[in-house]
Amino acid sequence: xxxxxxxxxxALALAGALAAFGCAPASEPAVHEGQPTESAQVESAAEPxxxxxxxxxxxxxxxxxxxxxxxxxxxxxxxSEAESQGDAMTATELQLEVDGQTLSATLEDNASARAxxxxxxxxxxTVEMDDxxxxxxxxxxxxxxxxxxxxxxxxxxDVILYQGDQITVxxxxxxxxxxxxxxxxxxxxxxxxxFLGEGAADVTFSLV
Length: 208
Description:
- The structure is a single chain.
- By secondary structure, the chain is α+β, with helices and mostly antiparallel strands.
- The chain is built from 6 helices and 9 strands; from the N terminus they run H-H-H-H-E-E-H-E-E-E-E-E-E-H-E.
- An 8-stranded antiparallel β-barrel has the order 1-2-8-6-7-4-3-9.
- Helix 4 runs antiparallel to helix 5.
- The longest helix has 19 residues, at 2-20.
- The radius of gyration is 47 Å and the shape is globular.
- The termini are far apart.
């Protein structure tokens, strides 16, 4: 009995000593703030890979500004005007119409012809024209165009800018300082006289 009691006393003394020196069994480690718990890590690992792709795609869409805005009436009008100007800049053919008959002329490559094309880009232009000196039909333009005058000779089918604000269509020949706007290829005097007729004529100019 004495030996058993002595053993128990020693055990109690040893337990007390261990407690005094911090040798008690360690408790569960504390979880620091922001550190994922084991269950959170498991849930993160189980999350489908597709969700990350979806988030990435959504981020790209947001950074790109989302769907393109519907164009307003003003922007549509500006686009239409720009398109018309582009057509004028690239136009090379001019159409002349008299009493339902038409002829095509090739525009010259100069500033005056380009300005005339810009004017026609707004719509067909009808000019009342009269014979002059038995060689041409001449009429007044609604506005002045830039001049690229030079001393040149002209003939049947030539469309000429005179003094910046008059347009002439030749069926005869002449030599003067003015600007050629266009030319009807292969035109003859008889063909141009028949096309333009005698006396006053309404000639409509338009881009092809």
